[in-house]
Description:
This protein has 365 residues and is an alpha/beta fold. The protein has 2 domains: 39-177 and 286-362, Alpha/Beta hydrolase fold, catalytic domain (Rossmann fold, 3-Layer(aba) Sandwich), CATH 3.40.50.1820; 200-283, no CATH class. 49% of the residues lie in helices and 18% in strands. It is built from 16 helices and 11 strands. It has helices spanning 2-36, 41-44, 93-104, 115-118, 125-139, 153-160, 178-187, 204-214, 220-235, 242-246, 250-260, 267-272, 276-284, 288-291, 312-321, 345-362; strands at 51-57, 66-72, 78-82, 108-112, 144-149, 168-172, 189-192, 195-198, 297-305, 325-334, 337-338. The strands form 2 sheets. A 9-stranded mixed sheet has the order 1-2-4-3-5-6-9-10-11, sandwiched between helices. Helix 6 links the parallel strand 5 and strand 6 (168-172). The radius of gyration is 23 Å and the shape is globular. The protein starts with a helix and ends with a helix.
Amino acid sequence: MRSRRAALVAVALALMATVALALRFGPTLSFSLALAAPATEPWLSPLWEPALREDITLPGQFAGLRADLYRPARARGALLLVHGLSRAGRRQPDLARLAHLLAGQGMLVLVPQFEGLAAFRLSGHEIDEVRSALAYTISLGATASIAGFSFGAGPALLAAADFPGLRVVGSFGGYADLSHVIAYVTTGTHHFEGRRYVQVQEEYNRWKLLALVGGFVQDTGGRRQLEELARRKLANPSDDTREVEAALGPEGHAVLALVLNRREDAVAGLLAQLPPGARETLDRLSPLPAVARIRARLLIAHGTADDSIPFTESLELARAGGPQAHLGLFRTFHHTGPHPLWPAITERTRDGWTLVRLADTLLPR
């Protein structure tokens, strides 16, 4: 009788532990699985809260941005997502899917449209827009967080440094210093703690870079010429643009020389030849000095094969973030998707655990 009673107690304790673990980690595991394997989403969605997407315009005091608001039935936290360089902006499919998954976990998710980023431009104005959107997110009355992606992560980190009460700040595929990104895109080289890395670059990235830095030029005519050049090359990299290039003024030629450069030892000199306003904007948009002021939990994730922004930029951010920084490097993902499954099964398993760990910090409890 005693042994039977002991067995029943052991079974009851095991069931209680299982239930407790399911309640604690179930949402994290289901979210991570759906994020990593989209085919599982239809099977998992009954476990999540229903969420609706609203097309809204932020009030004038919050910059009047157009935005999508993903509203769960019971919000347990608010999150601002800052998209990267994408023509689709807030409606970029992967970002919209992520916002929907997060809303299903009880987060009120705001995804504004940042027109500069959607047009492949950075001017510094994005920081002010993100600050306004973050202030609006906080005004919704829930504990607020922010996450930025790719080139949107820089403005997100800079804005977050001015709001000490945030719960989580995330940088996914982001950068620490734009001059490092320029060196990487043009020469394929990057550095961290004395170690030099080299990665073959896609030529297409040069024209994305031109669109990005062309907006730094103060001369209106030169800026428009660079925009035309970038637009044509992005549409057709083999397009003959010699006529446009010949018409560029000194500022435009300085920017184009930097973008077309392939020598690592020439980067610093070419950066120094940029117009003063361009150099000031590069400095202003580089979030590394501001990271130490962020008091929230800092989530930093990056793919080691990213061919747009080197993963060493996230290493720099994590080092600057100190003890509150949680770094996750993903070895089985590059800029366009995952590597083949079977040759990398061990690394894919490791990446799965990294994803679960980051998701557990991000999701509300």
